[in-house]
């Protein structure tokens, strides 16, 4: 198990850098994680992050983009604006969750 | 053993602009042959890959407003359906197989074809219709799904997708 220190927070991560223990995450850490990948968190980002955290707590797996748009009510287009290029993975990273496993 | 790095471990999400491009040619109008192209296009877009879909021949049924929501799956001639082949052409078999496949797809939270195309467009994907298929079927842009960007020739598509990886389905 590797630990890494991001902006003063020491957390466990996998070989790619995703957090392995969702309980080590808090909103302060999210700001630091987002900064690492060049994202400044706005209210819109927080809406997506909070949905992902709540959905993970309820479902035990990270929501796919499809689920974030249909269940979380955040349009696909907007997710691509908020977390450019790779929204599902970037959002999971900032939320301290594993990458989504679903195909769609 | 625990190791600690000085530089933070951060996932590599690639550079802001990737030149990776994917072209998918959809040539089939069966329900089971519509999904592979849609799923792969959606996955590529989620990875930041510029994606173009070209609908040609039977694949036109995927973007024809009249047929797109009503694609069918038939077990006829499909040994992977694992049914006695003599039974597959019986009346009602295609309807039943289609119903079952649609149900399993919906249970996974995967959308039907029209909604899936919309998701692909919302993710930045491009939809193109084949000129020859449109002419053969006497169809115009009005007959096609609104998000189709245009009816173009095969050479136009090849030109647009210069340097792309290509899938023919």
Task: Provide a quick synopsis of the model.
Chain A is mostly helical and 104 residues long. Helix content of chain A is 46%, strand content 10%.
Describe this structure in words.
The complex is a heterodimer of chains A (104) and B (169). Chain A is mainly α. Chain A has a single domain, classed as DsrC protein, C-terminal domain (Arc Repressor Mutant, subunit A, Orthogonal Bundle), CATH 1.10.10.370. Chain A has helices spanning 27-36, 43-59, 65-70, 76-82, 87-94, and strands spanning 2-6, 9-13. In chain A, strands 1-2 form a two-stranded antiparallel ribbon. Chain A is globular, with a radius of gyration of 13 Å. The mean pLDDT of chain A is 94. Chain B is α/β, with parallel strands linked by helices. Chain B has one domain: 3-Layer(aba) Sandwich (Hypothetical Protein Ychn, Chain: A), CATH 3.40.1260.10. Chains A and B meet through strand 1, helix 3, helix 4 and helix 5 of A and strand 1, helix 1 and helix 3 of B. Strand 1 (2-6) of chain A pairs parallel with strand 1 of chain B, so a sheet runs across the interface. Chain A: Keywords: Cytoplasm.
Q: Strands of the biggest beta sheet of chain B: in what spatial order?
A: 5-4-3-2-6
How many helices of chain A? The count is 5
**How far is it from the N-terminal to the C-terminal residue of chain B, by CA?**
48 Å
Question: How many alpha or pi helices of chain B?
Answer: 5
> How would you characterize the largest beta sheet of chain A?
2 strands, antiparallel
Q: pLDDT under 50 segments of chain A (min length 5)?
A: none
- State the helicity of chain A in percent bands: 40-55%
Radius of gyration of chain B: 19 Å
**What is the CATH superfamily classification of chain A?**
DsrC protein, C-terminal domain
Instruction: Give the number of domains of chain A.
Output: 1
């Amino acid at each position: 198990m590797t630990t890494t220190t991001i902006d003063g927070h020491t957390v466990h991560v996998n070989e790619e850098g995703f957090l392995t223990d969702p309980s080590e995450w808090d909103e302060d850490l999210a700001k630091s994680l987002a900064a690492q990948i060049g994202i400044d968190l706005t209210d819109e980002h927080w809406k997506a992050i909070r949905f992902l955290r709540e959905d993970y707590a309820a479902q035990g797996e990270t929501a796919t983009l499809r689920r974030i748009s249909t269940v979380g009510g955040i349009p696909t287009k907007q997710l691509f604006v908020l977390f450019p290029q790779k929204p599902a993975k970037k959002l999971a990273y900032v939320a301290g969750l594993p990458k989504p496993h679903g195909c769609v | 053993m625990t190791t600690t790095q000085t530089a933070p471990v951060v996932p590599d999400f690639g550079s802001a602009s990737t030149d990776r491009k994917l072209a998918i040619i959809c040539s089939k109008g069966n329900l089971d042959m519509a999904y592979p192209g849609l799923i792969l296009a959606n996955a590529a877009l989620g990875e930041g890959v510029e994606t173009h879909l070209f609908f040609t021949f039977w694949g036109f049924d995927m973007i024809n407003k009249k047929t797109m929501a009503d694609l069918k799956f038939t077990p006829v001639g499909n040994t992977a359906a694992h049914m006695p082949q003599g039974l597959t052409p019986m009346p009602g078999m295609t309807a039943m197989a289609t119903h079952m496949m649609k149900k399993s797809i919906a249970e996974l939270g995967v959308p039907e074809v029209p909604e899936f195309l919309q998701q692909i467009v919302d993710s930045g994907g491009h939809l193109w219709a084949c000129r020859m298929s449109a002419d053969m079927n006497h169809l115009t842009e009005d007959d096609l799904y609104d998000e189709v960007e245009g009816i173009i020739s095969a050479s136009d598509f090849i030109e647009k997708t210069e340097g792309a990886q290509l899938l023919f389905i």
